[in-house]
C-alpha cells in the first residue's frame, strides 16, 4: 500500500493529470500552437418502440476540432449518408416498416473516430379499434382477464379501465399482475361489467394502446358458498428469479379462494426488514426499486384464509450488468511518454473487455510492438504524434454492454518537471512511498541526499523508478529519511523532495463486539499509541459511515478521557458496526467493533386459524422481530367465552412450542368459543401478547369425561344419598347436560342397574335398608349421547347404632398398666369407627376410643392398690352399642408418695419439733416413716399414726436439711425435704425509725432474721404541759412497726422502749414534724420493709385459715357418701387416679393413692374422682384427647389432706407458726 500526504495535484492520478493537462495548455498557448481535439460524444441514442414516423428519433451529437462528421450503421450496413455538425436521425421521409433494426453512430475527424453503443428500434402500428369478448362465470369462482400488448423496451405500463376511461377499482380481491392481466381472487355479482379494457401506455412514444374489451357475466351459485383453501393462479411452488443490480424487481403472489386470502411475506434466510424490499399492491407484490447484492436470498409468501394456507418460495439471484469501476480519461501527452489507459469494469458475471481504435477492433489494425493490452489496461510506450486517436473500451457480459470513448492526443513540447520542488513526504515505517517527478522529456535517475544514484536495482532492491519518473520505496525504515533529487536529462532542470519516516500509529485496545440489553449503556474502548512527533492526532468515532459528534455529558454519545465511547440508553437502532479511527498527519488506523442491542421480542402478528376439523384447529402466526436474541419459545394463550361471563373472561396458558415454530395444532373442548393470542420469549424476557385471533367455535359432542368423587353421603337408615363433584360447564360438550345415576345392591343378587337423571347432585334413593352396600356410578349425558361407561364405586345406605356389645373382655395387669382385649363387635349396622373402653373407680369413670382395626388397648398410669371396673362398647357415626358386662380387676400395692407437708417449731435454741402429714397417695398400707437430717442422723418411726418428732442438741449456728420418707411393705417412697434452723433468743429493737404525723407517731424497725419473738412496751412522755409517762399495749418484735395514736398536735414527746425493767432505746418526736435518728435513711428503709412484711404475714394467715376450713368441711362417712346421688359425669377426673393410656413400656406414677383409701372411701375421694373423662382412640389406635383433671402435686409441696379416715392430720396451731422463719435460708 502506498500512503502519501500531498496537495491536490499530487494525491491522485486524476489530480496529477489535471495539473499536467493545465500545464500543457499553458505551454501550447504560450508557444502559439493551435489546439486540436478528437471527437467527444455528447448525446447518444436509446432503444425504443415506435408507432409512427414521429416516434423515430436516434440522437448522436459530438464535439471536436476539426468538426466531426457522422455516419450510421443499421444492422451492420451503412444507413443513409455521412453528415457534418449533427448526427441525429429522424424518420421524416422513411417507411415505418424499414426503420426496425439495430443502429450504431460513428463521429470522426482527422484525430480519430468515436462510436456509440448499438441500440434497437421496434416498430408497432397503432390500433384504435377493439372487439368485445364475453365471459360467463359463477359467484365465488376466480377469474383472469388477459392483456397482451406489443413488446417494448422499456415495457409498457398497463391500466384496466372501462369505456369511460375510469380505472377498475383494485383491492386484495381484484389485482393487476406483473403480466398486465386482471386477477379476481373470487367473483362477486358487483363485478358484472361489459367493458373491461386493457390499456398499454408507452411512455417513450407517448402512446396509449387499448386492447380487446371483455364483457364479464357473473351468475349466482351455491356450489362455492363455503369457499375453500387458497390456491395460487400460478401453480409453481418455487420460482428462480435472476435480477440485475440496480434494476427494479418484483416478486408476485396472486392467490385465489373464498374468503379472499391474506398474503404475508418473509425472508427465509434473513430478516425482511433488512432488505430494500417493500410490500405493495395490497400485499401481493414484494418490490425492490433498486435491488442490491445484499437482497440476494430465499423469500416466501403465504396466502391464508379461514380454510387453510398455502406458500410459494422464490430464490432471488442478484447479478449485475457491466458497470465502470475505472474509466480512462481524455489526455494530452508529449512524444516519448508512456501512456496507460485503465478501463476497469465489473458485473455479475464478470464482463469481458474489448479495445478499439477509431472504431476498429485492435485485432483488425496493424500490430504495434509498443502497444500492449493486459485485461482492461492498454499501455503505449514511447508515443509519437502518429499515435493520436480515439480509443474505445467496451465491457460486455450476458446482461448487456457499455462503451467508453477516450482520446489520446500527442503534442510536441519542451521538457518540463511538473511535480513541485521541495515537497515533504511523510510516511510511517514499513510502508511504501512514491516520490513523484512528473515530467515530459527524459528524466535522470534520482539521487539521494548523499548524491548516490538510485537506479541500480542490485544496490537498492527496495527502490524502483517508474516510467513516469516516480521513485517508489518499499518497506521504508528510519534510515530512508532525507532529501532526494530528480533532474531532466541534458538540462539543469531538477527538484528536491524530503522524506520523513514516523513510527506507525497503533490502537492498543480497540472496540469489541458487545451485547447490551435495551435501555442500558454501552462502552467501546479505543486505547491509542502514536509517534511522539504526532501527538496532535484526532480520534473519530463512526456509527456505520456516520461520524458521531459529542454535545453534552447527558447526550446520547459521550467521549470519555481515554477515548472510550459511551452510548447511553441504547435502543434497537443503535445495533450496528462502530469504528474508532485515529488520524495523524502521516497515517490513520481504524479498529472495528459493534453494539448488538438485545431486547424483548416484538409480539407475533397475523394470527390465522386453519385446518379446523372437529375440536382440532391449527393456529399460525408470524413471529415478530427477535431483536438480536433468538426466540426460544412461544406461549399460546386461550380465552373461552361461551361458558363464562364476560367480566370473568381470563386468558389461560394452553400450550408452549419451541421458538422455531410458527404454527401449532390445538385440541379444544367441544361446544366452546375461543380466541387465541401468542407471546414470544427470548433471553431478555416476554414480548407483549399478540392481538387476539378471530373467534373460533367448536361443534358439540357427547361428553368425554364423567364426574369424579362419586360417593354415598347417606345420613338416615333406609336412605341412599349419592353425590359427586360437578363437572365444569366447559366439559358439558353440548346442550341438555345431565347426570345419569346408576345403582344396584353390591351382593350380586341383582345384575340389573337402576337409573335416574338429575342436573346436579345429590340423588336420593329410599327404602334401601340399613347400611346396605351398593354399587353406584354416575355418567355424563347431553343431547348427543353419554360419556364413557364409568367404573362403579361402593356406597352404603344410612347407618344406625350398633346392636350388640363387644364380648370376650379380658385384662392383664402389670403394676399401674392394664392390657384390655375383646372380640370384634358384630351387627355394627354401619362403618365401625372404633371401640370405647370405660374404666370406673369409686364412681369415677374414664373412657377411651380405640380404632376399629385393633381389639385391644393398653392403659397406663393407673392408681396402685385400687379396684377398677371396665366396660367396652363399639361405636359408629350414629352412636354406641350397649356396654359389655362389667369386668373388675385390682392393681397391686406400691411405694407411697411423699408426705403431704412438713413443718417446724423451735421451743429452744437447740431443739426443733418436726410435724408432717401422711402422703396424699399411700398406694398401700403405711408401715411407718423415716426421718433424716443433714449430719446423717436417721430416725425410724414405726407407728404410722405418729406424725411428729422432737430433735434436741442441735447447733444454733447451723442450718439443717430435713427429710421425711413414708414406707409400705413394698418399699420407701420419695422424701419431702425442708431446710431450716432453730430460733435464737432475741431482744427488743434498738434501731428504731420515728415518723410523726399530726396526732400520731409511727415507730418502725427491722426484726431479727432468726430471733425469737419478744414482747415489749413503748413509753412516752409529753415534755411540756405536765403529765406522767404513758405506756402502750404489748408490742411483738416480729411486728416491725407500731403507731402511737391520740397525741397532741405540735407537741414534743420523749419515747422509750422498755422490756421488764430495762430500757433498750430512747428518742424524741414532735407531732407534725419528722424526727429521725442520725441514721435516718436506713431507718426509713427498715420501716417500709417492716410494713411489707406485716402485709405478707397477714396474707399467709388467711391462706392457712382457708385450708383448715376446707379440710374440715370435706370429711364425711363412707356410707353417707355412698348414699348420696353423685353425677359422675359432672366431676373432672384427677390425674392421680388415671394416668395416660400407653401401648409402650410400663410407667410408674409418683403420686398414687392407696387401695385402702379407695376401698374405705377417703374424705375427698368424691371431690377428686367424681367426674368422668372421655378419652377416645382414632381408627389407628392413637388418642383423640388426653386425660383431664387435677395435675399431680410436686413432691414436698402437697396439700395436707388426710391419708385415711382413721389417721387425721392434726389441725394447725391457732397462733401463726414460725415455719416461714425457720425455712429462711441462712
From TrEMBL:
The keyword Repeat applies. One of its GO terms (biological process) is cell-cell adhesion. Residues 687-714, 785-809, 971-990, 1118-1163, 1186-1226 are annotated as: Disordered. It comes from the Eukaryota. Its main location: membrane. One of its GO terms (cellular component) is growth cone. Coiled coil: none annotated. It is found in: Cell membrane; Cell projection, Growth cone. Signal peptide: none annotated. The chain crosses the membrane at residues 1087-1108. Residues 603-701, 703-800, 802-894, 898-986, 988-1081 form the Fibronectin type-III domain. Residues 793-804, 1118-1137 have a biased composition (Basic and acidic residues). The keyword Transmembrane applies. Keywords: Cell adhesion, Cell membrane, Cell projection, Disulfide bond, Glycoprotein, Immunoglobulin domain, Membrane, Repeat, Signal, Transmembrane, Transmembrane helix. InterPro entries: FN3_dom, FN3_sf, Ig-like_dom, Ig-like_dom_sf, Ig-like_fold, Ig_I-set, Ig_sub, Ig_sub2. Residues 705-714 have a biased composition (Polar residues). It holds the Pfam family Ig_3. Neural cell adhesion molecule involved in the dynamics of cell adhesion and in the generation of transmembrane signals at tyrosine kinase receptors. During brain development, critical in multiple processes, including neuronal migration, axonal growth and fasciculation, and synaptogenesis. In the mature brain, plays a role in the dynamics of neuronal structure and function, including synaptic plasticity. Belongs to the immunoglobulin superfamily. L1/neurofascin/NgCAM family. PANTHER family: L1 CELL ADHESION MOLECULE (PTHR44170:SF36), PROTEIN SIDEKICK (PTHR44170). This is Neural cell adhesion molecule L1. It comes from Oreochromis niloticus. The lineage of its organism: Eukaryota, Metazoa, Chordata, Craniata, Vertebrata.
